[in-house]
Design goal:
alpha/beta, 11 strands, elongated
Length: 464
């Protein structure tokens, strides 16, 4: 894939600062995350209580009331799903795309489970509610509810097993949006038609407004945002082959100054298609943040689209949406340490190139693992950084070539612990990116070695 992800953050020059600032930054990040989590829980938890205002519920079965509460909570969570995928940088600041997409995924599964539990428990409480699904007691209502239930099962199943089902990401994404829109719309109509709780005009206005806002966010993502991209096109000026079945695509802005980004961030890239196309792919910037007028993306041949990236003609128009991502170096970090595997080197390379171009005086180190020495992207440039800028470079080929005197094989706990012993646990920013086994090993080892969790930034590429 290249370097796929999303999130937010602002570009900031890297400078050596007091370590006390690092602690404040960590505290702010944790506080912001807790605040967003609390706001999320408060919003979804408030819905059944708001619905119950001014209603006499005496004589109604507890199981029925419980099923209604689950339905309201599930619908509220579905509203928020649209916000989580609208690519707003201010949503949960400090989180990367993989984190935000995991929240979206888990919240979606929970929301669908709650909405499906609503009719099951309602019927279990009182079998008269089975008539809601019987066309003989109302064709329009029954058809709408059956469509909603089938859509829930379809969107849940396709999300969990998309790759096993062989569904193309672009078409799954379109179906996902259409089904989700239909579900929340039918959910609103169902709530309004039942009317037992939502019979006051102000409640009807609130539920209708929140549903419209959620669907409106989809319109913002699919219409407003592409329009902004369309006004700032880019042109492909170079496509060059890299080791390890990878390609670097170079883009230059057309009629505008380009995009400012923080090293380690990414953008959604559209090449050879309209910005309204479903063909949008998230790739990390590989270039230095000091070169906003010449953006580089190194992309590995892994999928249908990436397998053809080397065939993109020079002069092709491209569009970018970004920058996003929290896989960045804190201004106050005193040392920078990267742990990369395979194409996970891409965002770390952007960080190191920026470190070099800004004349950053902070010590930097990199552990880079790949299948072979010849397959390591940027190897010669990294070796030049080691000679000229003092980068502590450890190359780890899985298959050592003849005469190789460095370490070889798979990354292990000893190598990572040695890195920590040399670079320290306080004031050091650790950046981890690569295949899941490497990331799991690195995060586990760093934490066991005493590195604070807040000093580790890790981002996984597999978000779809």
């Amino acid at each position: 894939m290249g370097a796929a992800r999303a999130g937010r953050a602002a570009a900031a020059p890297c400078r050596l600062q007091r370590r006390t600032g690092l602690g404040k930054s960590k505290t702010r990040s944790r506080s912001a995350g807790m605040a967003w989590l609390a706001a999320y829980a408060l919003f979804i938890g408030a819905m059944p209580f708001i619905a119950a205002v001014d209603h006499d519920r005496r004589g109604r079965e507890f199981l029925l009331e419980f099923s209604v509460a689950l339905g309201f909570i599930g619908l509220a969570m579905l509203w928020l799903q649209f916000a989580l995928t609208a690519r707003f940088r201010w949503v949960a600041p400090g989180s990367g795309l993989d984190t935000l997409m995991q929240v979206h995924r888990q919240a979606g599964i929970s929301a669908f489970a709650l909405v499906l539990a609503h009719p099951v428990l309602a019927i279990a409480a009182n079998d008269r509610f089975v008539h809601f699904l019987n066309p003989g007691h109302g064709v329009a209502r029954a058809v709408a509810l059956w469509v909603m239930l089938i859509a829930l099962v379809a969107i849940l199943g396709s999300s969990l097993w998309r790759k096993k089902l062989g569904l193309r990401y672009e078409w799954w994404r379109l179906a996902h949006a259409v089904l989700a829109t239909g579900i929340v719309f039918i959910g609103l109509v169902h709530v309004l038609r039942v009317g037992f709780y939502i019979d006051d005009p102000w409640k009807q206005a609130l539920w209708s407004g929140l549903t419209a806002a959620a669907i409106g966010l989809l319109g913002y993502t699919r219409v407003v945002r592409p329009l902004r991209m369309w006004r700032k096109p880019y042109r492909v000026t170079e496509v060059r082959r890299e080791p390890g079945s990878s390609w670097t695509v170079v883009l230059e802005p057309v009629g505008h100054p380009g995009m400012r980004f923080a090293p380690g961030q990414f953008a959604w890239v559209t090449i050879r298609a309209s910005p309204f196309s479903l063909e949008q792919h998230p790739f990390s910037f590989a270039s230095s943040a000091e070169a906003a007028g010449r953006l580089e993306f190194t992309i590995k041949e892994l999928g249908d689209w990436t397998a053809k990236v080397g065939q993109v003609p020079v002069g092709t128009t491209a569009y970018l949406d970004g920058p996003y991502g929290a896989f960045t170096v804190s201004e106050t970090a005193e040392r920078i340490v990267g742990i990369a595997g395979g194409v996970g080197i891409t965002p770390i390379m952007s960080i190191l190139r920026t470190w070099r171009d800004r004349g950053d005086r902070r010590p930097a180190a990199l552990l880079y693992a790949a299948g072979t020495l010849e397959g390591m992207v940027y190897r010669e440039e990294l070796e030049a950084m080691a000679r000229e800028r003092g980068l502590e470079l450890t190359l780890l080929p899985r298959e050592a070539p003849p005469g190789w005197t460095g370490p070889a094989g798979l990354p292990d706990e000893g190598l990572i612990r040695g890195l920590v012993e040399r670079q320290g646990t306080q004031g050091t920013q650790y950046l981890v990116c690569g295949p899941p086994p490497l990331m799991d090993l690195a995060e586990r080892t760093l934490l066991a070695a005493g590195v604070p969790a807040s000093a580790i930034r890790a981002e996984r590429f597999d978000i779809a």
